[in-house]
Amino acid sequence: MDIIIASLLTIITAATPLLYASIGEMITEKSGVLNLGVEGMMLMGAVCGFAVIHFTGSETLAILAGLSAGMGMAAIFAMLVLGFQSSQVATGLALTIFGIGLSALLGQDLVGIAYDGLPKIAIPFLSDIPVAGLLLFHHDVMVYGSVIIVILSAWFLNKTRAGLILRAVGNSHDAAHAIGYPVIRIRFMAILFGGAMSGLAGAYLSLAYSPLWIENMSAGRGWIALALVVFATWRPWRVMAGAYLFGGITILQLHLQAQGVGVPAQVMSMLPYLATILVLVLISRNQSKIKLNAPACIGKPFQPTS
User: Fold this and answer.
1) How far is CA 275 from CA 200, 269, 299, 305, in A?
2) CA nearest 209: which of 32, 31, 2, 50?
3) Long-range own/partner contacts, residues 238-242 (CB < 8 A, 24 or more apart)
4) Which of 104, 128, 193, 262 sits between 20 and 30 A of 152, alpha carbons compared?
5) How many CA atoms does the CB half-sphere of 22 hold within 13 Å?
6) Residues 94-124 pLDDT 10s
7) Is the Cβ–Cβ distance between 121 and 141 less than 8 Å?
8) Mean pLDDT for the stretch of residues 128-151
């Protein structure tokens, strides 16, 4: 039982950065914008969060630094694709490359420095429940925050007027503009939110998941988060389920290596990415379902006529 609980806890920690990044990208795409720079924003959040915790010792400031770094990168992306009408695909790829290089430069003096990790918060009474208490109510603040973000995102998209407007902009920006909605402003705010979530995802990597800074420590998680949005057909609860599924696959390959399974470690490390490709192939076979749920204007530039 102890081994099972420990495995489930590691799945939760592995899923949390994927959950933050994919929820942020889902909101961005719901507005009609495709941002492929998730990986770069995560790395900037990771290095800035770790730098702040190293120099100040404040977990709160470190989390805010990661969030702000992601938003800053997202603001650059928004300025280019919304203000200068640059290609969203090319700009997103450039943002990832820029983030990888800049994070490596900023973090070159932080490599090899360790940190104890974010403290665990036990919810009174609930954490005392056998098994379930340890699994669900004894985590750091960012794990709790990821669940709250999913709940708020689902409520925002499905129960609020602002969420309806966001979806309207993503489905038909020309119609939304014609009835008076500020398409550019709405998309700008959605992109900033996506950047903030990617920054938090990166900060979680360097503050909790593996509390240290290593160059390119996101290791492709930004691309998995992008795939998760499609896998979940742009629905928050499915995003959450997909994040925990892929988190489980990530942990599975570590446990298989620890058990000495006779498969090369490199092949084991490929499992999460092979699973991503397999899922995308299976989903792409049902084009009608994707078109039914995908924002109709995703990736399409908007130029106000007046």
Assistant:
1) 24, 11, 25, 44
2) 50
3) 239/19, 239/22, 239/23, 239/26, 239/150, 240/19, 240/147, 240/150, 242/22
4) 128
5) 34
6) 999 999 999 999 999 999 888 888 999 988 8
7) yes
8) 90
Tokens, residue 139 = 């985590």
Q: What is the DSSP string of 176-230?
A: HHHTT--HHHHHHHHHHHHHHHHHHHHHHIIIIIS-B--TTTTTTHHHHHHHHHH
Domain edges within the chain: 2-293
Q: Percent of the chain scored above 90 by pLDDT? A: 63
User: Which one of 1.10.10.10, 3.40.50.150, 3.30.1330.10, 1.10.3470.10 gives the CATH number of domain 2-293?
Assistant: 1.10.3470.10
Q: Which two tokens stand for residue 200?
A: 């938090």
142 to 131, 181, 201: CA distances (angstroms)? 21, 34, 9
